[in-house]
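I have been asked to look over a protein record a colleague put together. What it holds is a sequence and that sequence's fold in C-alpha cell form. Please read both lines and tell me whether the C-alpha cells look consistent with the sequence. I do not need a full report, just your reasoning and any doubts. This is what I was given:
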Amino acid sequence: MPAQAPTPQASAPRASVIHEGLPTQLPDIDPDETQDWLDSFDAMLGDRGRDRARYVMLRLLERAREGSVGVPALRSTDYINTIPPEREPWFPGDEDIERRIRAFIRWNAAVTVSDANRPGLEVGGHIATYQSSASLYEVGFNHFFRGHDHPGGGDQVYIQGHGSPGVYARAYLEGRLTEQQLLHFRQEVQHGIGKGLPSYPHPRLMPDFWEFPTVSMGLTGINSIYQARFNRYLQNRGIKDTSQQSVWAFLGDGEMAEPESLGAITVAAREELDNLTWVINCNLQQLDGPVRGNGKIIQELESNFRGAGWNVIKVIWGREWDDLLARDVDGVLVNAMNSTPDGQFQTYSVEDGAYNREHFFGRDPRLKKMVEHMTDKQIEKLPRGGHDYRKVYAAFEAAAKHAGQPTVILAHTVKGWTIEGLEGKNASHQMKKLKLDDLKKFRDRLYLPMSDKELTAAYEADGTAPFFHPGKDSDEIQYMLERRRQLGGSIPRRVIRAKELKVPGDESYKELKAGSGKSKVATTMAVVRLLRDWMKDKEIGKRIVPIAPDEYRTFGMDSMFPSAKVYNPFGQRYESVDRKLLLKWREDVDGQLLHEGISEAGAMASATAAGSSYSTHGEVMIPFYIFYSMFGFQRTGDSIWAMADQLARGFLIGATAGRTTLTGEGLQHADGHSPLLAATNPAVVHYDPATSYEVAHIMQDGLRRMYTSSEEHPHGEDVIFYMTVYNEPVSQPKEPEDLDLEGLLKGIYKFNDAPEVSGDREAPRAQLLASGIGFPWVLKAQQLLAEEWGVAADVWSVTSWNELAREAVDCERWSLNHPGEKARDAYVTTKLEGAIGPVVAVSDYMRAVPMQIAHWVPEDYHVLGTDGFGFADTRPAARRYFQVDAESVVVATLRALAQRGEVKPELVTEAFEKYRIDDPTAVSDVAQEGGDA
C-alpha cells in the first residue's frame, strides 16, 4: 500500500509568521523561563479575556521602550488620543479670551470668502478648510510660532493654502490688513495693484506678508522637510545658529495622497529633524468626498509615519470624551472607535444626538449604558480633538519638546466646523457663499454681538455680510497682540535683512574667456570649472550650495569630494571603499555638497530653501543645482514654479542638455524642449551658451543680477538663472576682442562675417543662427556653403531664444500702451536689421524653441529642430535623423535661397543627393568623441 500523506495533526508545527519584525529567529537561551512567561500569558488570556491581555501587552511594550529594549514599535495604536488626560500640561493662556478671538477670526474668514462671491463677482474661495483648522492655527499663533524678531530667530510656518482666509482675518484684527483689503479678496488688479489679496499664500504677490507658497498640494511636505534640513545645514556649517528655530507645516489628510507629501518623510527621520513638526488636519474629507470612506486615514497615516521613524501624536477626541473613556472598563468604546470607518464618522458629524445614540452607542448595551446620563444634545456636541484647545496645546507642546525625531500631529476635525450649512458635507469644499440664514446661525454659534437688522441690511443691499472687529483697545485685540510681541512679532511676515555680497570681479573669469586652445572642452566642464573657482572665493565661497541628485561624478565634480565634502549631519562613520584614492568619497558634518540621492524633487526643495535663505534667515546662500536637463523642468516644473513664487534665487544647470548629445540614454532622457517649459515661468532666465566665454559672462551676470543691488532692485533681482550645457567636447574659441557683450546677455550677437567666396563678388548671402551645441554645426555649414556652393553666410550666436522673445513681447506691450508714440522695435529685429538673405536657425531642441522669435525676424525665417522622440544612437546619426547637422543646414539654406530666386532649384537637389540628409546610414562611419552620460 502506498504510504499515506501525514494528516495536518501529524505534521511538524509551522513557525509563526511575525509581520512586526519581532526577533523569533534568535535562539532561545532559556526555554523553561520562556515557557513560564507564555503560560502566564495564556492564563491571563483565559481568565481575564482578550481586552485585559491586550492592555498588559501594550504596557509591556511601553515599558520595554522606556528601558531601551530593542522591540519594534507598533505600526498603529488605538483610535484615541496619544496623550492621556493625566499627562496633559497646564494650559498657560486665557481660554475664554482665546475662544472669543477664534470666533472673531472664524467669522471674518468665512465672510471674506462669502463676500467675494456676492452676485456679479463670484471669484471663488474656500470657507470650510480654515473652519476645521482654526484651533490648530490659533494654538500656534498664541503660544508657539516665533516671529522674525524672536532672539532665537523666527520659525518657518507653512500655512495650508486653502486656509489663507483665516490668516488674512487674523492679520485684519492685528491691524496689518484693512477691511477694504478683505473685501478685495481674489481681486488683485481691478481695484489697483496691491489693494486686493491673492487667493493663496503667494510671496511674489504679497512679498512683505507671505513667506512660503503652499497651495500646490504636496509641495508643502517635501519643501518643509528640506527647509528643516537646510536649517541644520546652516548650523553645521557655522553660517547661522538655527538651534532655536522650528519648521511647522500644516497639511490636509487628502493632500497626503500626493506623492510629494510622503515621498521624503524618511529623510526627516534619517536626519533626526526634531526641528520639524507637521500638523495634518484630518477632517476626513478631500475635495469631492471622504478621504478613506471604508478605512481610517488617521490610522493609515500613523502607520506610515511610525514606520518611517517619526514621532506620532494623535489628537482625536475632545475633553468631553475623557469621562466616557474612563468608564470604558471593558474596552468596548475603544473597540467601537477602532472599528468605525471614516465614512461613518463623517455621517455621525452631521447627524443629531439621537442618531448617534442609536447608531454609534446603540450597537452594544454596555455602550448605550455608558451615555444614558447624557442628553441627545450633549451627545451631538461631543467634539473632535482638533477643535479642543487644551488637547491641541498638549500635542503642540509635546512636539516642541520631543528630541531625536520629527513629529507629526494627526488632528481629527470636522470640515466646515461651526457653520451648520457646511459641517461635514461632502460638497463643503465647493461651498463659497453663505446665505442669510446660514450667517445668522453662524453668528449665534459664535456668540457675536451682531443684530439681525445689521446682517439683513448688508445682505439685502449687495449680498455681503459685515466684518467684525471688537475695537483695537479691546481685551481680545490687546491679548493677541501681546502674545505676538512675546513670540517675536506677527507672522506670516517676510523680511529681508541679509547683507549684500561682494561678488568676484573680472579676474575670476579669465580662464574661461581664453578658450581651450588645441584641447576640447564641453560647456558642462566649463561651468564646473567656474564653480570650483567660485567656491575658493573668500567672499562668496562658503555661500555656494552645490546640489546634485546622485550625479556629481556624471558632471565631473567628484574632485570636490575630498575638499568640499558631502554634507551629512552625522559625519562619516565608516571607511570609504575608495579611501586610498585621491578623489575619495568623503562625508562630513560641515560638508558643503548637498548630495540628494536619486531625487530631483528633493534637490529642488533644497534649492528652494537655499535660494530663499536671504529672507528666511537673513543669510544669502547661492544654490547651484546641476542635473540632467531632462529631469529639471519636465519632472519638477511645479517645484520650480513654487521656487519662483517664494522669490528664491540661484542657478539651475541643465547639464547633458539637448536631444542629440545624450542619445545613448534613449527616448525619455533626451531633452528637446526644456527651454520651452522654462519660457512659461516668468522668473526663469534661460540661456543656452555655445562657448566657455559665453558661460563666463552669463554666470557673472547672474551673480550681479541676483546678488548685488541696483536702483531698480535694491536687494537683488528675484529671478532664477537656468542654463543648458552639454557633455560634448568641442574646441572653445577665445573671446573676441570686439565682443558684443550687450548682445550676448540680451540673447543674440554676430559671431563672425561670411568668409570670402572665391570668384563671385555677388555671391548669395544668408544668415545662420544657432545656440548651444548647434553652434559648431552652423560654423561647419558656413564653411561648406562658401567652399562648395558659393554662398556667403554670416554666423550669429543666439544665447537665449527665450529672452529675445520675452523682450520682443515687452516691446509690443509697451507700444500697445503708448499709441501716440513711435513703436518700439524688438531687440532681435534691431540686431538683424540690414542683414542680407534668408535667416536659418537651428538648435538641439524642437523647432518651437527658435520659432519663438519668428514674428520679429525681419527676413525670411527658416527653422530646423529635433522634433519627435529621442532614441539611442551616435550623435552624428541622431543629428542626421533629425536633420539638424551641418549638411542639413546647408541644404536648408540653399532651399531658402532658391525660394527667393537667388539660386537655382537644381542646386538644392544636388546638395540633397550629395549629403543624403534623409539617410542616417550615410554617417554610420562617422566617429563621435567623448562626453557620454
Remarks:
- The longest strand covers residues 276-282.
- Residues 95-115 form the longest helix (21 residues).
- Residues 1-23 have pLDDT under 50 and may be disordered.
